[in-house]
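Lay summary. Proteins are chains of building blocks that fold into shapes, and those shapes determine what they do. In this project we predict the shape from the chain. Here is one chain we studied, written as its sequence of building blocks.
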Amino acid sequence: MKYSVPIVVALLVAVCIVFGVSVSYRDQKNAEKIELTTAVSTTEAETTYSDEEIVIDEIEEADSSFVYKNGSYYFIYKGIEKELPDFPEFTNEDKPQLYYYDYDGDGEKDVLLRFFVGTNSTSGESTKYYALYLVKSSTFEEGSDDFQYTVATVDTWVTPFKDSIQCEMTQLRNLKKIIQFAMVNASDSFKYDSDTGLSLDKYVGFARAQQTLMGEYCTFKAWQTGAGVYTVADDGTINLDIQILVEYEELASLQYIGDIHCEVGIVNNNGFDIVSGSLNFIAKDEYTITDPRLSTDEEWSCTVQNSNAYGDYDTEITYFSAEIDLNGDSDEISQYFSSSDGQANDISSIEFTQNTVTITAKSGYTFAERIFNKNDFSITIPDDDGENEIDVAFSIDDETGDGSTGVIVITLDRNYTREELENVTVNIGS
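And here is the predicted shape, written in a compact code that computers can read:
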């Protein structure tokens, strides 16, 4: 069956990538305010300790640790203890962690404490929130009996995000499958191609729209941000993932389609801020789509013949799946479809071009009408990492128009080079 949906982002005063919206940000600024979720709960099983001193995490090189003793939690830096009253409880899985990294770019490493503060399920999925305490080495004087730390709460990212950029989400008018998210500096205007509706701005990303149970693409209505979740890489880099939630006309609930991903650091020696040039949109796997701006002008075709001459007993084809290797430059190749799934033996040939896939059944065989009624098809290729599949199909047609045909024509969502379709899987029915 055809997959559910996928997207991207562009952003921040200097540079970025994101995802996009159909109505003007300025015209709908009040109607589509960025909604932030800051309420947290701590309903998970809590970690308890005895009254003896317990080191929860430490970095010897930085002479820093996070400990529990006498019923309280302490942040210790250079031998100086700072009690953290009302510190949120946590599970063994979410113990506070310390990191040692240069966060303000002054050449000296700083100490970061990341800790769990609660959970929320606004996106439809349980999301854990974290906060950060950062001690900058440049602010500490040797011999001092105190140290200061900078705080990043669950919503610290909100102000720089809203003040630095404006974003706009649109659904392409001639290709409802594609949602685009454009981002520009707060003082700039959005620009679009009058024919295609594609953004002409530098920072823009794409995602696939959600589909109904009948395989029709949903109509975009509005978007908002969900949680902002801090994570820390092994090298100490602070990452922030901001959930993007989309509302469709046909669906009752918000759809969590991906995250705005960026780095967080100390900018201009002030508080936590989004690092310029670090933003991009990372769609959830099921919403990933190729960039429609990469459409090729190259024309090509290759027909794959089924080497197996005999079909199955049932002359109505309801399902088949075939992995095709288009490596090379021959206009015609042969492959044994018998090694594929379903009723692949009943297929005579599959012709590929830059923007279509034509599937021809053997003489006397036809495709089931429900394949067309339910839009039950997909053409998938591996993503850049080779870990997930991207559906590149857009629409399906038959030869006669009544569904009783031995030929299926699938139109792709853009023009692809042969190399892009080199490892392709054709899925029809279920």
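What the prediction tells us: Residues 158-164 form the longest helix (7 residues).
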